[in-house]
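Weekly modeling sync, notes
Attendees: S.R. (lead), two postdocs, one rotation student

Agenda item 3: backlog of single-chain predictions. S.R. asked that every request posted to the team notebook include the full sequence so nobody has to chase files. The rotation student volunteered to paste the first one in as an example of the format we agreed on. Action items at the bottom.

Example entry:
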Amino acid sequence: MKSNIVAVIVIYNKKVEDSITCKNILNNSDNSLGMLVVDNSTSDFGNKAYCSKKNIDYISMDGNKGLSKAYNAAVDACKEKDAIILFDDDTEVTEEYFEKLDDASSVIYDGVRAELYQSRYVTRRDKLRMIFLGGYAKSKGQEDLIEALKNLSQELKNQFEIDFYGNGSEEYIKYLKAKIEKNELSEVMKLHSYQHDIWKKVPQYDIGLNCSHGEGFGRVTVEYMMAGLCPVASDGGATSEIIENGKTGILYEALNRAALRDVIIWTINNQKSIRKFGENAEKSARCKFSMEKHAKEIKKLYYEVTEDV
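Predicted structure, as returned to the notebook:
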């Protein structure tokens, strides 16, 4: 498995070749472990050239942006990897560590505070209600959804509504609003700014949409599920690990607008199944992704890796 694992080392104001962590990895790894250096240095230490020479991936943060932003940049760059190991630049990494790496891989999902999400409640209404949570950005897929639904018949448009909630650049939000109006979807789609207590509104909907081009851990998808909504999501990234297609939600091929259109039409015509998927989704999410489960798994892993120390 090491061939698809990357070690991320955040460097600050030093040469990569002087980093204890980097030297350990270069000396002890069998070269099947990928390396990514994220450089927080405030001066040029020649790290880009060194990494190029050693075939090490390199990201410059253009100054000290802090560990959290450096790690986030690394995660964004490593979405196709099976696992990421985060290091600072002065960690002693032993040969034994690499020998055990293949057998030590564990997947622990982020925890979501289940108590914030009430179960979906249904009032008698004529339209299927859908919600799309996420920042307004091309990679989040709002435009894909607009394009997918632009040629729907008026009969179908009368049967559903979609509310978007999020933040983004004013320019891009104006662009989306213009596209919605141009394609005669204003009666169907409404754009709203992000609300800090949005979870109170989520149970009022039937379907939660996630059209992102690629997700690490699709937290918003889990939040939909916690509230008993049926998630409809692209299969990019790790979303397919969260949703069991046709049981706890619906997956469609990422970036495939025709497939997204077909899924939306299917949900309109199969609302009994949607309700059942939502019920299954809530049970699954509260079992797999609660904060309590996350904490227990972290604790269990901690004791496992330290039992011989």
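Discussion: group reviewed the output briefly. The mean pLDDT is 88.
Action items: rotation student to repeat for the remaining queue; S.R. to check formatting next week.
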